[in-house]
Amino acid sequence: MSTNDRHDEPLHPMTWYAGFVRDRAWLVASLVAIATAFAVVGLGRVDFDEEPRNFVHHDARDKALLDELFRDFGADDTDVLAAVEGLSPRDPETVRVVLGLIERLRNEDEVVSVSSPFDARRVGRPLVPLFPRTPEHFTAERLASAFAAAREHPALVGQLVSEDGSLFLIAIRLRETAGGIADTRRQVERLRTMVADATHGTRISITLAGHPPLRVDVIDAVRREFYRSILFAGVMTLGVAVVAFRSLQGVTTALAGPTIGLVWTLGWMGWTGQRINGLNTILPSLVFVLAFSDSTHLIVAYRAARALGLGPLDAVSRALLNVGSACVLMVLTTAVGFGALGVAQIPGVRQFGIAGAVGTILGLLAVLTVMPTLAILGFRGRDGVSRPEPGAADSRDVTGPDATGPTLMLQRWALSCLERPWRCVWVSIAVTAGLFVVSLRLESDVRWLEMLPPGNPTIMVTTRCDEKLGGSLLASVIVEWPEPLSLESPEVLDVLARVGDELEASPVLANAFSVRQLLEAFATDGDADATAFRRLRRVPDRELHRLVRESLRRAVVTAHVPDIGAARLLPEFDEVTRRLAALEADHRGFRIRLTGSAVTAARAVYQIIEDTRTSLFTSAVIILLMTVIAFRSLRYGLLCVLPNLFPLLATAAALVLVGEPLRLASAVTFSIALGLADDSAIHFVSAFLRGRRDGLSTREAVGSVLSTSGRAMVIAALTLVAGMTPLLVCQLPPLRTFAALSIFAILAALVADFFILPSVLVCFAGPAGRLADGDPPGS
Question: What tens digit of pLDDT does each residue of 576-612 get?
């Protein structure tokens, strides 16, 4: 069919554009060059998010309470924990090494304070050090006595010393800096160097943890994976392009558009201040491979037209008219999958969704401008495609001769299924229903250290603290008492004690700690007395204010929280909150509120998963409506539902079968996977409708799509898989999870488009041999 025959069909928006590119190829090339130069300038402005807390948003009440805790009792953003293992009373040298390190730390300009078990005093005797201070007193007997006392000290056990004495913690507070992550990295590296120098050649192991090293490690890992993912995705995609197109011009044309689309996306991120974080690290790879998928469909259609004997100009027009609209619809549905995340409450997820939607659209714009322009200005007969005489082949046989390997195998299996289409449909419905039942068992969960690579020191320290101290993170309860009561009032001390009891009554919280433990250590008879309060007020304010602010009539009670997942923690937090509310009701004028980074982060990050559930449903409805509108047919919109549901339910069921919960990375994947699952279905149905308008029967049209567009669908799927594959070996676990689930969903979608969708079309598209009632007039 000639190009002019298509000009009056309303569902071909590429008609005007194809003519514009044909007539003004140099103008299009100039505009692309200007846009690319502008984007290259923006590349220099791309930066990384240096504050992990920016990724998490708390609701207004939680955030206000957390800010209140940090304002009154100090934040933990600058606290470093040094976990010391290997200390032994039988080896005085180990104690000397640690004491020497502590002394050097206190002399560091970047260190504000250092707290350790070696600073403690004996219970009831605050002038007598718990540990001997001079080497001549480091006898086995005295050290053994000190270690035993430390394991029973009310201010140490469960806080800085494990019950069995195998783990000691040194709390290091760093000076706040204004230089961002560069200064923090310098501070952390300095501490690590000091620790390495002090422990070299000894039996002691000291590992750093806490917010500063965690921040440095996460950002450094994100930086590495960002550049590695771009490089490896490009290499893998290049390999697919070489195998698929087997000519320099074809490979160049296929890759030029996606590459420029990637530059445009990163340039847009730079100009708009979008920052790279742990989640959108995969965005460049994703934008590149999605754009290459569009480019593949155009290149295959272009080469098919050239094989029919058309020149470059007519071949470009034919390719745009045949698959351009489907590419636009495909990208719009993928952008909807991304865009649905743009309404999430979590800033990092919202940023990822918006950037993903913009990136896929920019990638399409680049492909629709660069590929035709290069074909027109660059090939001029040098694309290596054999061109028989016009009329030697028709549109039903344009890519079948090039189909090899996986494509031919899938075609044969798909055509064999068409011999019994109803059986295939019923089997597909039954399998999908079974996957749905299995997916109902999928539960949500999130852990604090999901962003860290395996073997990271923070993970090891956290695991040891979970085992020995009940957790490395803290839940905090702010206790505020009314006037005229004071800290010395029996009711205040009783409430602090009962709050600690309520915390320790929870099966997931351990080792509650408050100013009461200090008073017990200072008291002569074990109870808080006047002597204990007098000794308490001799404690330096910067240390005492971590526990109590008498001028504000406030104190804080903390408890250790293990990294066992938000699914288990949140119900316990809710139960503790309920019990604290009952305690508050029993003491008129008191305010007792549960907060802390561990509590609010669990609630906020868990909300991400709930957001994605909502966004998944929203995007599914929008994609269905877009498909119905684009095809101008409710029938064809509904016929795409089963093939689109299958990969999503298969992915959810796979998570259940391998025992994995729905985590942050996998939750985000589903919204994107929905758009990806719809992509090939759109191309399939578009090609099917072209065949129907050409007079083919339903079976003939389906068979034609399998033998012509099947190759492009396989190449596109393999390209997406190739682009995701490097992420399977990256250091960040969420990116590995995202890649694995995306690959599984892409392959499941390919199965659905080759085996489910053809049978569905044969059974429900309408009578054979004519354009069925309800078929759209164009595609």
Answer: 999 999 999 999 999 999 998 888 877 776 766 666 6
DSSP, collapsed to helix, strand or coil, labels residue 104 as helix
Backbone angle region of 165, left / alpha / beta, with phi > 0 → left and psi within -120 to 50 → alpha: left
**Please, which pLDDT band fits residue 555 given cuts at 50, 70 and 90?**
very high
> What range does the domain containing 483 cover?
462-602
Nearest to 466 by CA among 562, 599, 565: 562
Question: Rounded CA gap, 458 and 452, in Å?
Answer: 8
pLDDT by residue (tens digit) across 134-157? 777 778 888 888 899 888 888 888
| Cα–Cα distance, 774 to 779 (Å, whole number) | 13
312-325: average pLDDT: 85
Token pair for 200: 């070299």
Q: Are 572 and 506 in contact (CB under 8 A)?
A: yes
| 617: Cβ contacts below 8 Å, ≥ 6 apart | none
Final residue before a domain boundary, out of 194, 216, 238: 216
pLDDT band at 297 (very low <50, low <70, confident <90, very high): confident
Angle at 567 between CA 561 and CA 570, to 5 degrees: 60
Per-range mean pLDDT, top range of 25-29, 383-387, 407-411: 25-29
Q: What is the DSSP letter of 561?
A: E
Say how many domains are in the chain: 3
> Residue 364: inside a domain, yes or no?
yes
In-domain check, residue 681:
yes
Burial 283-293 (b: 16+ CB within 10 A, else e): bbbbbbbbbbb
CATH of the domain at 687: 1.20.1640.10
Q: Choose the final residue of a domain: 578, 602, 626.
A: 602
d(CA 576, CA 265): 46
- Quick one: 594 and 611 in the same domain? no
If phi over 0 gives left and psi between -120 and 50 gives alpha, with beta otherwise, what is residue 21?
alpha
Taking CA atoms, 474 is separated from 447, 469, 581, in Å, by: 14, 11, 20
Q: In this structure, are 574 and 550 located in the same domain?
A: yes
pLDDT for 63-115, tens place per residue? 788 888 988 988 767 888 899 998 888 888 888 899 999 999 999 988 988 98
Most confident range, picked from 17-31, 155-169, 331-345, 481-495: 481-495
Q: Hey, what are 488's tokens? A: 């010395």
Same domain assignment for residues 640 and 672: yes
Identify the burial level of 4 via C-beta atoms within 10 angstroms of its C-beta, where 0-12 means exposed, 13-18 middle and 19 or more buried: exposed
Cis peptide before 372 (omega within 30 of 0): no
- Beta 473-480 vs 554-561: how paired, if at all? antiparallel
Residue 238 in domain: no
